[in-house]
Amino acid sequence: MTGRGWRLPVKLLGIPLSLDPSFALVLPLFAWLIGSQVPAYAELLATLGLQVDGEALSRGLVPYLLGLTAALGLFMSVLIHELGHALTARLYGVQTRGITLWFLGGVAQLEDMPRQRGAEAIVAIVGPITSAALGALLGTVLGNVEMGSGATFVVAYLAITNVALALFNLLPALPLDGGRVLRSLLALALPRQRATAVAGGVSQVLAIGLGVFGFLSLNLLLMAVAFFVYNAGRAEVQAETMRRAFEGRKVREFMSPEPITVELSMPMERFRALKAWKRHPCYPIVDSEERLVGVARIADAEAAEDEAPLSSLLRDAEEVEAGSDMEAAVRRLAASDLGRLVVVDRHGRVVGILAKTDVVRALEALQS
Ligand SMILES: [Zn+2]
Fold this sequence. Notes:
By secondary structure, the protein is α/β, with parallel strands linked by helices.
């Protein structure tokens, strides 16, 4: 999850909120799913001693309005869960870039994981505790406040769902909260890299188990969750490998030095001809003092007129200083459109290229 999505015009306790585009699909879907199950829920609630008038709630548009209210409440619950994480992280001095609600719930983007021993476990466990507490609170309201059938239905639905949310998130699979608790506890005894690898292994086994169970019970949502857990767990292990490989290292150690640069005054035809010679998709463009002014893509040159100046193809270069931290550069590279950063010295002169292939090569060298 990145910070993309629709930024909401409100901040909660200083934290920006966004909606992932999948939300637009999921909200009506959930409203419909809950709405179409109202009679079944009413029976379930009756077994818990809660009387709701299932027939009155199933008439006309009522079930779908109830479904919509319950779905909105569900997303509010997820938001409160994520706020629990964000505020606990804040106690450890780690800020939250934003909270994004998406189709399987929410993600609080912490700037970093607190590095204090055991802190990740505390930050993680507060999420399920928050959900369980919210569920208990709603349960108490239910037992003590006289409400109509509609309100009883929604409050009961949310009480049960919050408890389910707490239990689901306690599954010891990365990147769920339970997986983070597991990793943090393992890291008390093992090196962090090893702890992540073990937690990652447990996650994959759980994800596969969940997927098989989802398949056998024809539960599509469960299968989607299993798929998500499997992939996100792997990404988590890879991110840890990267962090370890590049921590404290500088960009200049990994870049390809002395790249071909192109002067802004080069005629279009000659620029185009570079592709017959070297197979780079784009080149750093420099002024007469060798200072970076941007990048130009060969593909753009092929579509351009012969007489057009090279400056008409100029795009902003994603540049990085040779002496800056490799860890941060790798994160930028992962989000880069061109898949490469132009490395410059302190005077803005091009000294290298850092491409995704450089990172892969470095990781391979470190692992062999
Ligand atoms: Zn959580």
